[in-house]
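Example 218.
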Amino acid sequence: MRILLFGPPGVGKGTQARLLAGEFGIPHISTGDMLRAAVTSGTDLGRKAKAIMDRGELVPDDIMIGIVRDVLSSPAAARGFILDGFPRTLPQARALARLFEELGISDYRVLELRVDDEEVVRRLSSRLVCSRDGTIFSTLTDKVSAGAPCPTCGGTLMQRQDDREETIRQRLQVYHSTTAPVIGFYTARGTACEVDGGKPIETVHAAIKSVLAAKTPV
Ligand code: AMP
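Predicted structure in complex with adenosine monophosphate:
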């Protein structure tokens, strides 16, 4: 199974991708997670990417295409994958089409999770992440606050730099102007399906599973 997962920031792509990856036994490839890991370990890539990510802008296409080329060509991705956060621009989508051709991949599914912008702002501006184990909490539902200890491991709860309201709105603007046309690229090829991402996690997961089952799985 090969899945390209689209949706605005905060729609729950990471959560849904992790569930599917566990069920299908395939890797969850998140370009955002890869960049954040590079930032944390202070690599060249991380240093270049940090300021761009903090502004809610996109890391240059050539860098992202190189990263994805390496990971998709690796044996770990040979039996399938869930790509979360790539492609985000038309040049990335065209590069991915060329890479699929080189790798002999013709069967893949494209899923778009949808949710409205104000719900994104509400979800992300209340999101806190444990700096030690990465667990995600919400100030709306979890009785937690920034700087407080993580209820599960005692690490410090932090707000992601790019989860500040102004940056969330910038990321949404980039999504609508630059990434939405990429979905059009796949719709034109008849491969894209929509799922309502505004529902509870289990409901969205069930909807994704039924969309995947509706056509012959690849
Ligand atoms: P995400 O966790 O997917 O929302 O990604 C966080 C940030 O990483 C984005 O706001 C971008 O700055 C950067 N990023 C992730 N994937 C890409 C990509 N495919 N192209 C360019 N920038 C990316």
